[in-house]
Write a structure and sequence with these properties.
Layout lengths: L17 H11 L6 H20 L3 H24 L5 H25 L4 H28 L23 H25 L11 H7 L4 H11 L5 H11 L1 H13 L2
Helix pairs in contact: 1-3, 2-3, 2-4, 3-8, 4-5, 4-6, 5-6, 5-9
Length: 256
């Protein structure tokens, strides 16, 4: 099952790993591997990338960052193939993402001349960028007939566990999720509190917005590392955040 109905599909520049992720998921469809196993695997790939950054193996770091994005796409694909959607997998995926993002930037800070506090600003900037993308994307998915609805626009209440998963695990993971993402969600909701009223978002807008998706963010890092531009990664993402207000302005002005 696709995340979106056919009429709502758009060119997602952050989702370049989807094709390879689907191929990988197909190989696992009739095995004992679960989507959670795949999520753990992309976490391992991310840790390898961090290790490579710390030891200045930037080409390998880029490889593992891209591999992480591909595997990240595979867990959701496998869940759809096996028809085993879960809140546990959805929250674990997001929790891994934010901790790996922090790890990538801290590793870059350690091996470059970038200051710790400037790196923290970049981390916050990256999370706000990703939250804006996810906010609009989840709204689109929720309103898309036949689309995936595991994610919610406003996640303030612990969801009821789906068949095959533990309510206790869902509750714990949801608690962690709200701690690490809650502030970012509230900021974006405050900046565009009426976005959920929009019937749909045009494809061109979603494609433009997808440059804030996690996959595209990681692709930028993966390109800059082997090119020797490590000193510019943190400043780039800080400046890149200016477009948060631009995108919200476009939405409020032209899309209602």
């Amino acid at each position: 099952m696709s995340k979106l109905a056919a009429q709502d599909k758009f060119l997602d520049l952050s989702d370049y790993g989807r094709t390879f992720g689907r191929i990988f998921a197909l190989q696992l469809k009739n095995t004992r591997f679960t989507p959670i196993h795949v999520t753990l695997l992309f976490g391992i790939s991310g840790l390898f990338a961090i290790y490579c950054i710390l030891y200045n193996h930037y080409v390998w770091a880029a490889f593992f960052i891209i591999l992480k994005s591909i595997i990240d796409a595979a867990d959701g694909e496998l869940a759809r193939l096996k028809k085993t959607p879960s809140y546990s997998g959805r929250y674990l995926d997001s929790i891994f993402d934010i901790f790996l993002n922090f790890g990538f930037l801290m590793a870059i800070c350690y091996v470059s001349s970038t200051s710790f506090w400037f790196t923290i600003v970049a981390f916050l900037a990256i999370q706000l960028q990703g939250t804006l993308y996810n906010y609009y994307y989840v709204i689109l998915r929720t309103k898309s007939i036949g689309g995936d609805s595991t994610s919610k626009i406003f996640e303030y209440k612990t969801p009821k566990a789906l068949p095959g998963e533990s309510q206790q695990v869902v509750t714990i993971l949801f608690g962690i999720y709200t701690i690490v993402y809650g502030a970012f969600d509230k900021i974006i909701h405050f900046l565009d509190s009426d976005a959920y009223k929009v019937k749909t978002f045009p494809n061109w807008f979603m494609t433009l917005l997808s440059t804030y998706g996690l996959g595209f963010q990681l692709l930028i890092i993966a390109i800059m590392l082997p090119l020797g531009w490590i000193e510019f990664i943190v400043p780039f993402f800080v400046v890149y955040s200016v477009f948060i207000l631009v995108l919200i302005g476009i939405r409020k002005t032209f899309i209602s």
